[in-house]
Model the fold of this input.
Amino acid sequence: MNSTVSDQYRALADQAERARDRQKPGEKILIQIGSATCENAAGSVDVLDEFRKHIAASGREDIVLRRTGCTGRCSREPIVGILVPGKMPVKYERVDRPLVHEIFTRHILQGEPVLARILDGPLEKLSQHEILTCQSNRCGWEGAESLQTALARRLGDLGITPDQVRITAASCFGACGLNQLGTCSHMLVRPDKVLYRVYNEDDLDEILQEHVIHGHTVDRLKVVEKTVGRKFFEMYGDVAFFNRQSRIALRHNGIIDPESIDEYFHYRGFQALSTVLSKGDPQWVIDEVTKARLRGRGGGGYPTGQKWSMAAKAAEKTRYIICNADEGDPGAFMDRSMLESDPFNVVEGMIIGGYAIGANRGFFYIRAEYPMAIRRIDGAIRQCRERGLLGKNILGSGFDFDLEIRLGAGAFVCGEETALIHSIEGERGQPRIRPPYPTESGLWGKPTVINNVETFANITAIVNYGAGWFSRIGTAASGGTKVFALAGKILHTGLVEVPMGTTLREIVYEIGGGVAGGKQLKAVQTGGPAGGCIPAKWLDTPVDFDTLAKAGSIMGSGGMIVLDEDDCAVDIARFFMTFSQDESCGKCTPCREGTTRLLEILDRITQGTGTLADLEKLERLAKLIKKSSLCGLGRAAPNPVLSTLEHFRDEYIAHVTQQRCPAKKCVALVHYEISAEKCVGCTVCARNCPVTCITGARREAHIIDQVRCIKCGRCFEVCRFDAVQRL
Amino acid sequence: MNTTTDNWHEVETTARRILGDEIVAHIDQCRQTSEPQSHLIGVLHKIQAQHGYLAEAHLDAVAQLMQIPAAKVAGVASFYHYYRLQPRGRFLINICLGTACYVKGADRVAQKLIEELGIQFGETSTDGVFTLEGSRCLGTCGLAPVLMIDNEVHAQVTPDQVPVILEKYLSRVRRESHASSGPTGSLTPLRRLP
Done:
């Protein structure tokens, strides 16, 4: 142990804590406003401005505005949290200027929350207490029934109503890492933020009697450690979308101010770095990461410990570490969220990685399309340099390390590691044949480790909470959690972090709230343009690198697009092929020419001019490209075609033999007709038709001229009597 | 790294005229680092941010100053989608064509934009106000379909909203030209590049 390192760390942490204490956060009313690309797009800048005006007008000095990143609850943004000391934290959804006024006057000034606009509300009444029970199978207690059932029964016995105490089932608080594994269960009492260990019924009774009824904390059972999920559940534990998640990589998202290093220190920031540097043994870090069974979150799933170990063993001593933040998969935005909402965590993960492999320089390769992520990482790097956490002799350990940002320029192929290296070198981002792998010969020919943002975001948690704890979350082959970007035809879009091995059904229905608009789920597309479609009948597939591969898809970076009955499998395959064909770098023939030909065939099929022989060609060509392309982009590009051919072959056949699109999506294969029985002659369709091909007198059935119709579907959308039919 | 040539003074003067002092100073800084050529992509980003696009003259000046073959500079500039080799309009419309936006109807919003503006992707409207581009993914999938105009993001856009959104920017142009050229000011592009 190196005491210089821990002393220096202590001094920095104390300095940060003092700076934070000067703001007296415990005594003030906090207004938390989401600030990230998505939050701003939803209008959070206006909301912030409006609150600022209200605070100024009220003349109150005990109300503080605080910026946080995003929690990943996209469809409800902007989200505002109101934290009144001693009261339950209240979050509001879709806040706009008028609502700000209401929140300010009613909730903040008069103490009455605006129940109608509460996140995932409306609520009829806020309960005085809320008890969250752990649902993780790693928790266990002596009671015969589950903790939640026992709790509900005891509350009933004591005559306590749901108005007084609300019970919520939550995911893991992360307390199971603290040696009592399996002997006790956990529950969190809000708003007092007390986490209890519950071994048996007597403990439960004591907590209810002492804490809930008399207001005294039961110190004997209180968990004093700062567990991983705790802060998150203290804030968001009552929201169904959140409390089924296990947040590790996203544990600070929506909680801390992403632009303040002082705040990051308060949440155990740089403690992992201090632990690592004071141990003074890079091999220890690599062993921990290996034991944690952390696998690369960028898509490949390569064991991180193994990758680090290869670079650390290289004879060449000049080595580099790169964070791949060129999040190019359409449909994935978790990296952006982590960079914008918790940048220091990613930076700390990189410094630790650099130390483990013996690198003195690291690079963030961020796509230029993410200006706010670039700004936040730049700010984080600057603040780390000011505190001596980057630069020479970090924390007095003798370890020198610095970070630079390099920008991507909109080339999907640069997510491939050799292409990314070429791009940092200032070249065209074209991949090369591997081996040699970058760990042997990478950036400027030196050993280089490239990891994804999410991989780095997990490193600090592994060091702080232990490799054993991390590996127990997840499956036998891969430890920890995975963040998914849930989007498409789903009720709740947003970021979902769940243990590896969680089923698609749990993600889509329990967290995502199912398909929007009461439609039938058709498939879940995972892994972006390199992935495939998993049909509804396979929803019970546990999500893991290996299981998804078996189902003909890939984990990829975690994009998860939900498709419903209105989406056509052939059209989706064509959509991804358009993308891959456009993004093919052109270096190898199978990918450059092959994707073009695949796209031509798919175009023919969606136009209704394909033949059965085309399906055979499609399959043969797809397999050929998969086998013979140079890099991952080409090898994975046919996946959407192959997986839809496997699971939705009947749709392909309908397109080529009957010129029919079962989902009624392919424009060339549908037409619109007006039902004479249903049409009331309101003329709305005729007035909205861009080519004026609908005729008919007022109060008489209208007719579409099929020759002139451009099939834009406008009439179908505007008809209020369901008279226009898509056939 | 010794990168000066015997006509360096002339090279630098020309570059200053074409790129501006700030960018020349930035390139100078890059030349001091251990891997000067690796900064090419960053330099091109800076030029595009300042000038709106990368003209042939810009690329030549960069090649000279950074001592990188002009063919390579042009190769890099044309490889990456983010770089524009044609002048852009006053406002850059970027419609997200990612998967989430696609399944939520971005194709119909795109069609509406094409109709309203009378231009295709990659083109600039004749009045020089709008340039239309498609983006692979803007990373705000939860708000699909998404449209970004310069740095402002418009969420959950429907085809019907397109004219309203465009009008907002058109009126901004009118206001700006009104302020700069008096009451007779007409709708002219504010920044048409050489």
